[in-house]
Amino acid sequence: MQHPTKNPKRSHQRRGGVMVAVMLCVLVVSLISVSLVKLALAQRRQVRRAELQLQAECLAQSALDRAATRIQADPNYSGETWERSAESFPGNRAGVVRIVVASVDAKTTQRRVSVVADYPAGTEQRARVSRETTIELKIPNEGTK
User: Fold this and answer.
1) Which positions of the chain have pLDDT values less than 50?
2) First vs last Cα of the chain: how many Å apart?
């Protein structure tokens, strides 16, 4: 009876095949990992942009409120550049708003207020929000005290 002998050639082929399979698995896992990291970074950038946009929207609304208060106190208020310090915001980034006030055609009791808010101020990657509203001046009756 003959005993089957080990063929060294087949043993090397099996080891080579296993090595190729392992290398393919490592490649697939690496590609998936790279894709997940890219996705996480993209989501982080999107959340950051949304944060900047929301902060700029709040700043624009605050500027409209500020202008309304200033107009009621002084009907000749024509606007300003309102700078908010970095300490006023999370992340220590300053914001700036340009407020422009103009009379509405032939209506002396109305003012059109336009604001443009930039957050953070002075950077390329900023959020810019523009808002406009009309404010009615509250003129007290001369007969009442």
Assistant:
1) 145
2) 127
Whole-angstrom distance, CA of residue 137 vs CA of residue 112: 11
Neighbours of 93 (CB within 10 A): 18
The side-by-side arrangement of strands in the sheet containing 127-136 is 79-84, 95-104, 107-119, 127-136
Whether residue 25 lies inside any domain: the answer is yes
Q: How many other C-beta atoms lie within 10 A of the C-beta of residue 79?
A: 19
Burial class (CB in 10 A: 0-12, 13-18, 19+), 24: exposed
Give pLDDT tens digits for 46-75.
999 999 999 999 999 999 999 999 999 998
Asked if the structure places residue 145 within a domain, the reply is no
Q: Which domain holds residue 81?
A: 8-136
77 within domain boundaries:
yes
Q: Is the residue at 141 inside a domain?
A: no
What's the domain count of the chain? 1
Distance CA 14, CA 31 (A): 26
